[in-house]
Structure formats: C-alpha cells, structure tokens
Amino acid sequence: MTQPTDIRGEHLRAALSLAASGVPVLPLRAGKAPFGNCRRCADNACGGRPNMKTPGPCTCPAPCHGWAAATTDPQVINAPTWARAWRDAATVAYHPGGAGLTVVDLDNPAAIAWARETLPATRTVPTTRGEHWLYLGAMPSANAVRPGVDIKSTMAYARWLGCGTGAIASLPDAVCALAASKPAPIRPVPQPLTVSAPAGGGECRHRTPAFLERGITMAEQRINGASSGVHNAVYRTFLAVLSTHGRCGCLTDAHIARLFTAAQAKGETARHCTDAWTNARIRLGL
After folding, report:
1. Contact partners, residue 110, CB within 8 Å, separation at least 6
2. Which of 7, 66, 161, 209 is the most buried (most CB within 10 A)?
3. pLDDT digits over 121-143, tens only?
4. Strand 131-136 to strand 169-170: parallel, antiparallel, or no bridges (unpaired)?
C-alpha cells in the first residue's frame, strides 16, 4: 500500500540523515522485506539474488538487491529510480557492516536475559519483540547462533529503530565466537529410494558408473557455464539431476557434494544450495 506523503517524507529524511552520518541505508517493504528485482533484473538475470546474501555484478540504479542496495550517496537516495520505493516503503533499513557495526538481534525476553548475563553492556535499541544490541566493529552475519539470537553485520540489513540508549562498546570476542561456533549448514541427503528391477532382471541403468558419472559431469559443466542467473541455473540443474537419478537411490554423498561445490564456486551460498535442492525434491515429490 502507498504510504501517506508525510510518512514517506519522514522515511526519506531519516534515510538522508543516516547517510550523512556514514550509515548505508535502503527502503524496506511491509514485513521487513527488501524490494524485489525490477524488470531489468527479473529472475536475477543480472546475476544478483533476491536477498543478496552474495552480491552479483548488477549495477541497477533501483534498490532491488537487498542489503547490497544500501548506500550513503544522497543523489542515489533522492534519485527518481528510488522514488517509487520510498513511496511504497514501510520503514528504513541500514547495512550494519557497511557502517562498521554489528547488531546482536535478541528476539525474546529469554535471549535478552542471556545477553545481559553473557555480553558486555552496550547501546540497546528496543524492537517489536526484543532488543538490538549494537557493537562497534563488523563481522560476518549469522542467523540462529543460539535460540532467539541473530547476528547482523556484513551482507545483511537491519531495521532502523532509532539511536537507542547507552554508550556503544567495541565488538567483543564473545559475539565473534557465537558465529564461529555455529554448526555448519546440514547438506540435504536424498532418502534411499527403491524401484522395481527392469523386466528381465537387469540392474537399474543409473547404477552403471559411466552413465551416472557422465550425468554428474554434465551437471557440473552446466553450473560452471552459467554466465547470469546462477541461482536459477543451479536450481534447474538440481531438478534435472534428481528427475533422472533421484528415484533409484544411485546418488551418493560424494555426487551431491560435487554439485554443491560447483554451485558454491559460482557464488552460491550453502543455504542457497540447500534451498534449491530441497525445492527440486519437493517439485518432483521425492
């Protein structure tokens, strides 16, 4: 829904004020969501990704690439290409890492109690459900480092909810350790599936080493050869592999690791790989 002029102007003024102090800003839609790709960047043809966990080469002037759209340039913020975004914006967000900050996002009273017992006191900002604790210093972002606790810094955005209260402290080792000790994402492994042997008692052809090896090699080449829209190319490749080999149980951890490695070499994150694999399995009913 379009915002009233006074609210829209308030968002824009807040964004310009933050940018002037060196804080990269971007508009957010309702639901704390970034703006989707514009027509020029539809289906991530520019090489970007909707939530921009990994930035692509896109130089689109519209704020349609999540945290990577955040800027301190007032000419960009005031540009006509941003006007519609400010008209539809529900709030202002910022890129903490770009401002040299780390936000410890505490989502509930239990998380706040843990922080008060564990972390050094710093500037706090009330949120809808909890608090943001701000520290001076940037680090890799990480979600769910413990129940109700996310870390937002580089390659992430946070809502601007005011200056908060208290003196800001330097980023402590205890926060860095949270991200370092977070368990690695679990790579999906296909469940064993069985099919009836072909008539005549022959073995499933997908278990023939040459057939399977050729299929995995072609899938790696398809991913490696993607010059744009890498996320979609990875999904389509995973879908093709699973449609051919997903029901016979011939895929092994090593095969899946090869596909994930090829995707990550093109800039995909482990989470994107996991999501693409899971979505392909769901579509095929595996």
Report:
1. 147, 148
2. 66
3. 999 999 999 999 999 999 989 98
4. parallel
Angle, alpha carbons 179-141-133 (nearest 5°): 85
Task: Output helix, strand, coil percentages for the chain, rounded to the nearest 5.
Answer: 45, 15, 40
| Spatial distance between the Cα atoms of 43 and 36, rounded to a whole number of angstroms | 10
Q: What's the DSSP call for residue 275? A: H
Confidence of residue 201 (pLDDT cuts 50, 70, 90): very low
Question: What stretch of H or E contains 152?
Answer: strand 149-152
Strand order in the sheet with 91-94: 25-28, 91-94, 158-159
Instruction: Please write the tens of the pLDDT for every residue from 143-155.
Output: 889 999 999 998 8
Q: How far is CA 234 from CA 191, 251, 255, 280, in A?
A: 21, 17, 15, 10
pLDDT in tens, 60-116: 788 888 888 899 999 999 998 898 889 889 999 999 999 999 999 999 999 999 999
- Residue 14, exposed/middle/buried by CB under 10 A (0-12, 13-18, 19+)? middle
